Amino acid sequence: MQNHDVDGLQIKHNETWTAVQHVPGTFLVNVGDYLEILSNGRYKSVEHRAVVNAQKKRISVAVGNGPELKAVIAPASQMLDKKSDIQYRPIAYQDYIRLQQSSTIRGKSPLQAIKINNI
């Protein structure tokens, strides 16, 4: 959620940062890495960032949601079939969050770090 008259959200698409125009009265939902892992890569998380505006103050509210910190996250068995290999190794959610928040890893690197065989 953000103030209605100041844009600043961007997503990375084809290695280019693209502005996301705010639509008044809406919330933007980013499914995040957790759903990409759970879906075994069928649903992709989107790399995103917020940029500042030199003319106006930008206010945004972000709310994270996920499983219990000690829960192990991995692809759901329902998302696998005979042709599909598991793409992500199981990891405790708290360890994934720690990896994601590391000062040395940025962007999609945390997902790559738990990917099996770097498919």
From TrEMBL:
Superkingdom to which the source organism belongs: Eukaryota
GO molecular function: metal ion binding
Occurrences of domain Isopenicillin N synthase-like Fe(2+) 2OG dioxygenase (ranges): 2-63
Keyword field: Iron, Metal-binding
PANTHER family for the chain: OXOGLUTARATE/IRON-DEPENDENT DIOXYGENASE
Protein source organism: Olea europaea subsp. europaea
Entry protein name: Flavonol synthase flavanone 3-hydroxylase-like
Coiled-coil stretches: none
The UniProt record lists the keyword Iron: yes
Gene3D superfamilies: B-lactam Antibiotic, Isopenicillin N Synthase, Chain (2.60.120.330)
